[in-house]
Amino acid sequence: MTRILTASRLTLVFTFLALLASSGFVSANDTAPVSSETETKPVHGMAMHGDPRYPEGFSHFDYVNPDAPKGGTLKMAVVANGFDSFNPFDIRGVAAAGIGNYLYDTLLEYSADEAFSMYGLIAESLETPEDRSYVIFNLRQSARFQDGEPITAEDVKFSFDTLTTKGHPFYRNYYADVSKVTIESPHRIRFDFQQTSNRELPLILGQMPIMPAHYWEDREFGKNGLTPPLGSGPYRIGTFEAGRSIVYERVDDYWAKGLAVRKGKFNFDHIRYDYYTDDTVALEGFKAGSFDFRLETSAKNWATAYTGDKFDNGTIIKEAIEHHRPTGMQGFVFNTRKEVFSDPRVREALTYGFDFEWTNKNLFFGQYARTNSYFENSELASTGLPSGRELEILEQYRAQLDEEIFTKPFKAPSTDGKQGIRQNLRVALELLRSSGYEVRDGKMVNAKTGEPLKFEILLFQKTFERVVLPFKNNLAKLGIEMSVRLVDSNQYVQRVREFDFDMITQGIGQSDSPGNEQREYWHSSTVDANGSRNYAGVSDPVVDELVSLVIQAPDREELVQRTRALDRVLLRGYYVVPHWHLAKDRVAYWNHLKHPEVTPKNGTDLDNWWAEP
User: 10 Å Cβ neighbour count for 322?
Assistant: First the structure.
């Protein structure tokens, strides 16, 4: 599972009738009955494995303040080159910050203090058999769009059809195992699945944002541009200045404000985003009071910039809030679609050119730890040598895997030893020689073709050059030419969507309950799908099978072992040069903002904060 990240835009013309005809629609008036293989019982919530934490009739989540006052304005900053869309579900353009979260409600609501549990929001309850071969959502009669129209099963089906046929490719992959959608009544809808081993599907369908069919009936999805759309969520779009700022207004008569899953959340009357093109300017703006909250991603800023009278007297609060979510993988990502990176030995060699210890000490004030897993900071991370059930899983593919998976624990190259980077570069040189390269006239070239080993790293943050340039200098000692190209954020997004890069710096987030989104990250079916998050171009039959095993895990323990096996194979594929991680959220905020005493394991969530009256 991953919490759905709203995508950008894809322009396609469609009609509602055509969509209804495309995916097994059954009208509530049709005479053919819908068969149900087993008796199902409506439940208020569901966990991926085991029982959900919160019982039926619970009053609120433990990590919110149910008595938080409503009011005030939350001012935020976005460092980007503006926005040109109010459609967060399409592939083209850049959607305004926050729009997917604030405008659209989902069938179910995610619990931030469990591995993966969902509770009723638009859906009052859900029904699914033991094998989870289908799910039925029973919608609340009180659920409304912001124009007062009821949310019905027609809207749910319209949203599913639109997202999977007109929306970002992510949705097609995420909901790929849905075989049929049936409207059983105006407030009851059923999804059947083409395989019963995908136990996550009832829950991830619950994450689906619901759009109004009546609003889009005479509009072209993806062509609304900056026309504010109709939503059902706690906020609507207020004032905005194209590409520069947007204000969301809290909906006073929001239909769900009394529900347990909404108590203590969305407390600000207004939420304003202002766009900055430079992070240094944004930081100074924060300290001057131009906005209220900042999540700091720079270790240098955290160590040196948050000082002065306002911090000393408590006007601005600096806080490192511990979290227990997987930190995922950030690193220099190789685009293996490119010939220069097609050989894993070359990719492994280049990992020895990055000196994390020097970078951490000299640039990051020693704040970080090295990342050695795609599921770092969780029990899902592989460690040591495979054993027990994990080893059993990997043994099935032994003939197709690097033997070192079974004999040598993975550890990102270190320069802690006496010889430091020199020894690492010697290792890199041997790997390059074994893959057919040699040094001629100070240049690393292919021994057969004479082609030099050179590539480009694509960046959009100028501040990251200080990390890249030492890496570049180390590779130059091997005769490798790495050029650095800095582009604006919009150009960067477009080039990444089209895989028009050699190497990028990218973070690959993970949840505590990985599932269908792993297809989007690693499966061969997404290699050529523009806009997918398979940045590295992973196309490996073993990885494909391990992804399927993760999705089909029958219980938590099996999920852990299968994920560790997948992690281990990905690490040995050398698809990234691993960076670093931090198990804390570094936040600074003006003291009129308050947050609950309890922080969920997933960390800081501004939706639970409020302004002091």
Answer: 10
**For position 38, what pLDDT does the model report?**
62
Instruction: Report d(CA 538, CA 540) in Å as an integer.
Output: 6
Pair type for strands 443-446 and 437-440: antiparallel
Tell me what pLDDT residue 24 has. Answer: 31
Across the strands, what pairs with 190? 136, 182
Give whole-number Cα distances, 339 to 435, 468, 534, in Å.
13, 22, 17
Residues 6+ apart with CB under 8 A from 570: 374, 522, 538, 543
CA dihedral of 498, 501, 503, 508, whole degrees rounded to 10: -10
- The CB density around residue 312, as the number of other CB atoms within 10 Å, is 9
**Between 49 and 189, where is the model more confident?**
189
Read off the tokens for 41: 């019982």
Q: Are 545 and 383 in contact (CB under 8 A)?
A: no
Alpha-helix runs per DSSP H in 104-193: 153-165, 169-174
Q: Which of the residue ranges 30-34, 295-299, 319-323, 389-393 has the most confident prediction, judged by mean pLDDT?
A: 389-393
Take residue 234 and report the two structure tokens written for it: 């706690």
Task: Provide, rounded to the nearest whole percent, the portion of the chain with pLDDT above 90.
Answer: 83
Of 610, 606, 586, nearest to 298 by C-alpha is 586
DSSP 8-state symbol, 400: G
Tell which residue, 593, 549, 598, has the closest CA to residue 569.
549
Written as six digits, the tokens of 574 are 């050398």
| Model pTM score | 0.78
Cβ atoms of 271 and 74 closer than 8 Å: yes
Neighbours of 408 (CB within 10 A): 11
Q: What is the rounded distance in angstroms from the CA atom of residue 172 to the CA atom of residue 151?
A: 23
Question: What pLDDT score does 199 carry?
Answer: 84
268, 74 Cβ separation under 8 angstroms: yes
Cα–Cα distance list, 214 to 139, 231, 533 (Å): 17, 12, 32
The Cα–Cα gap between 276 and 274 comes to 7
The whole-number average pLDDT for the span 270-290 is: 96
Residue 602 has a pLDDT of: 87
Instruction: Give the tokens for residue 602.
Output: 């997933």
Q: pLDDT at residue 30 above 70? A: no
> What is the Cα–Cα distance from 19 to 544, expressed in whole angstroms?
30
First to last CA, the chain: 37
518 three-class SS: helix
Q: Tell me the β-bridge partners of 47.
A: 117
Instruction: Give φ, ψ of 568 to 5 degrees.
Output: -65, -40
Say yes or no to pLDDT of 17 above 60: no
Burial of 59 (0-12, 13-18, 19+ CB in 10 A): exposed
Mean pLDDT across the chain: 91
How far is the C-alpha of 522 from the C-alpha of 525, rounded, in Å? 9
- What is the rounded average pLDDT of the residues 108-119? 94
For residue 526, how far is the Cα from the chain centroid? 16
Answer whether residue 504 shows pLDDT above 50.
yes
- H and E: helices and strands count for the chain: 19, 25
Return the structure tokens found at 196: 């019963």
Q: State which H helix or E strand residue 393 sits in.
A: helix 388-395
